[in-house]
Batch of 4 targets.
Target 1
Amino acid sequence: MLGGPANVTAAAHCMTRLRLTLVDVSLVDGEGVRAVPGVLGVIPDGDTYQVVLGPGVVEQVTTALRTMLRAPSAAEELAARGAGIRQARAARNATPLKAALRRVADVFVPLIPALIGCGVLAGLNGLLVNAGWLPGLTPALAAVAAAFMALIAVFVGYNTAKVFGGTPILGGAVAAVVVYPGVAKVTAFGVALAPGQGGVLGAMAAALLATRVERWCRGRVPATLDVLVTPTVTVLVAGLGTLYGLMYAAGVVSSAVGHGADWLLATTGPFAGLVLGGLFLPLVMLGLHQALIPIHTTLIQQEGYTVLLPLLAMAGAGQVGAAVAVYFRLRDDSSIRTTIKSALPAGLLGVGEPLIYGVSLPLGRPFLTACVGGAAGGAFVGFFALLGDRVGATAIGPSGWALFPLLAGNRGLLPTAAIYAGGLLTGYAVGFLATWTTFSGASPRSARSTG
């Protein structure tokens, strides 16, 4: 169905999708792939073919597929087909913006498991401290939860160099300058620097500079001196550039991100929530939502939580409400009802791709009404932000009901959780009603086949 082992050159996955890099996408039997039990949708995208499987299942399928691709015969065929066709297709189908956003996502997506784990531990530690329980354990728990965030710049630098073609350890070494305590003794533009100034944006910029310097050296330094000269020049030039330019500039940008988010919610709360909640599903559909990770991470570094994630999470609530309405509308379509039943638990936990690609997007109108539900939920949370009740998340990754352990705000846990829950319920209700009143359920099978 995928055109044979020789047609698959790489297999990777995110939380819900199997991402296949193919030599020739036209060889794929799309209908056959859709018909496989457990497949919730397919997304052709240039030379990449994405199969929506859902959390848990996608890891098992990716592992099994990689095992098959490592077989000698498959490897020989892959090498024989060559990379020329694949590169030509990628150049033709990928826009510069899309390629840049994907690279940014590639830098931050591997960090999500640590962000989730440390965020949950930080929330648990906060509960223990507020309750006065286990005072002998909470300092150690705080250290475990905070250590990753304290050094996240190093990991960002490492991944940035890796993604953009540099030596990862050199990217990490230069990015470490951003968080080194000794930078407090350095003055740039008449202002003393502060450890961590510029955050992950500064770390990413530092690693990009290191990659450029390294590439310049590789082409000019004799091979006999390369192992000594190239790393030294890379760390020196990129490190000084980070201290005397990038940290200051990235600090200004990071501060603008934080102040901008605060201003947006404090002055236009409901409207901001409506726009963010309503437009997030299209970003997820295009796979561009992961480009927001640096913004979330910057806000978490500055304020301890990101106020944008709970607003964006409302899109998933609208999606759930729309899917439930479709389930009751299409009483005679056992296929789509089965898809909804299998994808709905993931949707409640904030994983929206199975419902998007398996239900609402193929049907058309339910995707729009899901956005309406998300906009309503976002406006609900934004209204309370206008009143001064900030709802944030201490980590990124989960949403839906899975976000509750990560919630934080300026009014305490119970009011924060109540506002977030109210937003979810609003998104469910409006998504359901908007779908129920506008979607007739006519010709669902034909709609699915054209999606």
Note: The first helix runs from residue 30 to 35.
Target 2
Amino acid sequence: MNIKYLLFLIVIAIVSCNSKDEKSKYNQIVYQAVNDKDTATLSIHINDKRFYGHYEVLYHKIGKDSGDVRGDIKGDTLRGDFHFISNGGSWKRIPLALLKKEDKLLLGNGIITTYFNLPCFMPGTPIEYNNAKFVFEEIRK
């Protein structure tokens, strides 16, 4: 009985290790966007299915929001969340949507709600990309 249990645990360990993405399969890209006097920098590691990295928004003479981003990629859309410290205050989490269009990333804007105490965009409501606050352009690959 113990041998079967041990073999079962070994098989589970092997399957779970093989299902994780290898860090070497990610490409790092750095984007920057400017809106009036505010500047945003997005440094992400990206593959065909996922992304993760660092996002920072510098508000002119006010402060900054700085933290981590992560999420999934479906087609030309990157959707995930931004977990950050707001202007040096407390930790916050907001949903993030970016549309890849002509080698640029457009920051989406939508109605935010909570689901199981996590913020997300309201299902069934479109995310607006036409009047993006930030349009990110690649500055380093």
Note: The first strand starts at residue 27 and ends at 35.
Target 3
Amino acid sequence: MKQRAPLTLAAVTATLAAVCGLAFLTAPAATPAGGAGGPAAARMPVERSVLVCPSPSASDIAETTYTSLTPGKGGGKGTARLLTKEGKAVLEPKEPGKPVGATASGAEAPALTGAADGVLAPGWTAQQTTKVAVGQARGLLGVACTAPGTDFWFPGVSTAKGRQDYVHLTNPDDTVAEVDIKLYGPDGLIKGKPGTADTVITVDPRSTTKVLLSSLAPDAQLADVTAHVTTGSGRVGASAQIGEDGVGADWLPASTGPAGSLVLPGIPADATSVRLIAFAPGEDDADLRLKLAGPTGSISPAGSEQVHLKAGMTATLDLKDVTRGEAGSLVLTPADRKKAVPVVAALRVVRGTGTKQELGFIPASAPVGARATVTDNRTDDKATALALTATGSDAKVRVTASAGTEGGEAAVKEVTVKAGTTLTVTPPPAPAGGKGAYALTLETLSGGPVHAARTLTLPHEGIPMFTVQTFADDRSTVSVPKAVQDPAILIR
């Protein structure tokens, strides 16, 4: 009998910390007996955010750029610092709206942990981008620094020969974190190594550990696997680093949590190979309808209109060159809307051919929501492309380009995205007179929901080196119930 992956509640119990760091809150007031409800809640800025960044590369010739920004404008006090294990500050923004950058060379660049408070906490964002020109790890590897959490899904990793896939686990806290990694292939749970008591991974306080996934399943060489990372105690930041011989390397961020419908935004227009990897972690099989949202509308890919996922088993679908010269986003919805089975998913994307290929990944992403930011955009010609997809209804979006890390003035543009389409903003707004990397911040003004991704392309010797980062609501505010005044106390 095959084993199925359980849907855990671990992420629910740590939602705030896992998504945006921490906010210091009071418990909601109880609803008065016989009353219709408690006092209305107010949206308040978070007071503290936590981020972790994995160690960038094991290559001696790696060149890494770090960037960080808190969106918004100055006013008030706050601090933000990303630190090495030894306590050295690598990135230290001073005020909202002004990005900062740093660089590191070689394999010694460390993992980073840090926190922001005050006016620098709401929406604090950081990114690391690594370029490796030659060798086994060749490629452009980009990943956003993440909030620590307790539950992560990585559809699209591999234990096959020719792949070097690692999960990086970074513990930002002063206590030990205990982590379990389960792997699911096309026949279900890979038994023998993952999920057993002797494979619990201990991550020391304020340190990082990377786990070679093939070492967890030495007898299973599988091209496409789903990894489920959970913590039994503590919390970690988790990202998957992928290396594929002869193709390239990049990071695979965690998919958004299991959901009945998913959007995988920003497939590059010139993608030569696109493969969907999906997984249904519950007890029920899932049947999904596929749509490609392009510039003029949504279509079903010929021959790939639907995909069937057996519960607890990783499924793949080769979409080939599905975009056919026009950037788009893949939208997954239940074939039967009355039976929405939660799933996770990611895309393996290749650009170029032969010895000039490069690899990237696009996980299913949450909507932009009220506001979302991706840093480390470049003003170089055609280096940065922005893709916006609206589902549900037409959407109006404000796009703000921050100043550059070396100066310049912010720029703002408002765009309308038609429902069921993907709008490619190339080039997106860039800072006037700015130099250095800059950040793009999206705000949904009306309609939607909107899903978005940024593609950064830095060609090298004919290789279209690229990386894709998705946008997700920065959860810079939280709902705080208004205080209740007890009349009995006031008149005592």
Note: Residues 8-37, 484-492 have pLDDT under 50 and may be disordered.
Target 4
Amino acid sequence: MTAMDEHPVDTGAFLNDIEGHLLIAAARAEGRTAAARFTERLDWLAEGQRAEVEGQFEAEYLALARLSWQRTAERGRQLRDEYEETYRRLRQRAVAWCLLGCALLAATGLVVLALALA
């Protein structure tokens, strides 16, 4: 048994990590492609300059992608909080109506029972 076998694997976290790495790899590839398209039009650049511009372009592309992902995640958290609050209020109302219905049913049963015994 190795040290790795002693710790349980959290598959959800593992899959999230893999997804994150795949997203970053895809964003890097998109950034490289966009950078190549951009520098393709700049035929006056020397090869070293072209590589530097492409590297800067890719870095900026990744930074913008990361910022977009962070904004999306934050908005997702905000929406989740809003939906959870709405669900909690709806559940409270449903329980209240159910209790009111049960109380009315019990009161009606008591009235009918009292009338039947009288």
Note: The helical segments are 11-40, 47-117.
